[in-house]
């Protein structure tokens, strides 16, 4: 093994998601048999055999679970298709048009894509020293652009998860458990 | 949190894989060797991204293996410093909180990096954050956001028997400090995180 280039590119979660999905589709189309151990894990049939629970595609379904578990923005990707290959350049363009005093760095844009912050408090996790660099008005503008281009999680669901002691309690309990 | 890393390696295709198309056999071989493995200073390999180049297959003397030199790119889990990612609380101790994602388990948030006003409740074995009369709990299995502040690498190369005994003895001496991890186990790749800041901590708090 030789490492030729330790960091060839950065990937967003969406790209990893799409790559995994494409591969799964390819395998199905070519009627390719996934190794027995991986197949078992993919279908979540539990018959633990320490000899067959090795390596190979084992991580892929786990990564898929991680990427599609709330609060990941890809949780509803299958139904809502919020993320598309065109959405990424459009987000960059709209942020440029938003007429911000400073540019966002590559890492910050990547974090925005991966986290899809829905409020300025969450936006501050993606942008370094946000308070000093952008005014409140500008922060809100960024949040609006994100919601416009990448969509937002269902407000009904957000309520159910957010207010544990509010009226949404009945919904909240199962949704929290699902997230676990 | 994912990157692409370019590798070069020698792939050996065994004769029982000859029924596969060669690119499929190469892919399977690479995934079997790399997926779910940590490469030191690179990160946790997830799966093959693409095959860049492959040489002619050569059969050596003595066995039927086809040897192919390949260059390929792997998807690697390696969050950059200051990146914020989501994980789940798996365990807590007076030293801090242990987190895991579905595919990566070795994330630790030391108590110094919890929000100011956090206290450990020994009775319930969990951390609480007390602010303005509000008590918020870090429950196990809760999804949290944390910021990556450091990473630690521990090479897993086996040590010689003599050295291993000495190391084990040394580790046993400092065992109380790093419970509940077994005394001489160090994860190959550990991420140190922080939950001190706006937007960080349990996801529910910020909805």
Short description:
Chain A: Residues 156-170 have a biased composition (Acidic residues). The complex is a heterodimer of chains A (180) and B (207). By secondary structure, chain A is mainly alpha-helical.
Walk me through the structure.
- The complex is a heterodimer of chains A (about 180) and B (about 210).
- By secondary structure, chain A is mainly α.
- Helices cover about 55% and strands about 5% of the residues of chain A.
- Chain A has helices spanning about 15-30, 35-40, 60-65, 75-80, 85-95, 105-115, 120-125, 130-135, 135-150, 155-160, 170-180, and one strand spanning about 1-10.
- In chain A, helix 10 (about 155-160) crosses helix 11.
- The longest helix of chain A has 17 residues, at about 15-30.
- The two termini of chain A are about 40 Å apart.
- The mean pLDDT of chain B is about 85.
- By secondary structure, chain B is mainly beta.
- In chain B, the strands form three sheets. In chain B, strands 1, 2, 3, 4 and 5 form a five-stranded antiparallel sheet that branches.
- In chain B, a hairpin with a 6-residue loop joins strand 4 and strand 5.
- The radius of gyration of chain B is 22 Å and the shape is elongated.
- Chains A and B meet through strand 1, helix 1, helix 3, helix 6 and helix 7 of A and strand 1, helix 1, strand 3, strand 5 and strand 6 of B.
- Chain B: This is DNA-directed RNA polymerase subunit.
- Chain B: It comes from Humicola insolens (Soft-rot fungus).
- Chain B: It holds the Pfam family SHS2_Rpb7-N.
- Chain B: DNA-dependent RNA polymerase which catalyzes the transcription of DNA into RNA using the four ribonucleoside triphosphates as substrates.
- Chain B: Keywords: DNA-directed RNA polymerase, Nucleus, Transcription.
